[in-house]
Amino acid sequence: MRYQTVTIERETTSPIQIIDITRDVQDAIMASGMKEGQATLVTQHTTAFININEQEPRLLEDMVTFLKRLVPRDGDYAHNIAPVDGRHNAHAHLMGIFMNSTETIPFTEGAPLLGQWQSIFLIELDGPRPKRSIVLHISGE
């Protein structure tokens, strides 16, 4: 069994943003030289998450609209009274309780085993941010 760790970094430009990182994950798996195994993605943030869903522009718009309705930015949140980093971002943390900070994806022949309509997304909930990091841990043969 071999292991490799790669970090994928992205700048975000919107308060809520859905960024397709499928190609980054595919490229990292191919570059590892491993043919069979699994890739685990982990965000290093409490307001940015990993999701597998469909890459369709109107659906992505619907997702952003849904999140804004689910947890409004201007809610009366205790976290915003004295935020640790000066950001009034309780809404982003609350949205995050419905998301994953990790995903594990098997791969074969050097390619992730994703369905026809599946893409891998970084979901920013508290942007814009100059850098978001996703650790990709690849294990396999």
UniProtKB/TrEMBL annotation:
It comes from the Bacteria. It holds the Pfam family YjbQ. Signal peptide: none annotated. Belongs to the UPF0047 family. PANTHER family: UNCHARACTERIZED PROTEIN YJBQ-RELATED (PTHR30615), UPF0047 PROTEIN C4A8.02C (PTHR30615:SF8). This is YjbQ family protein.
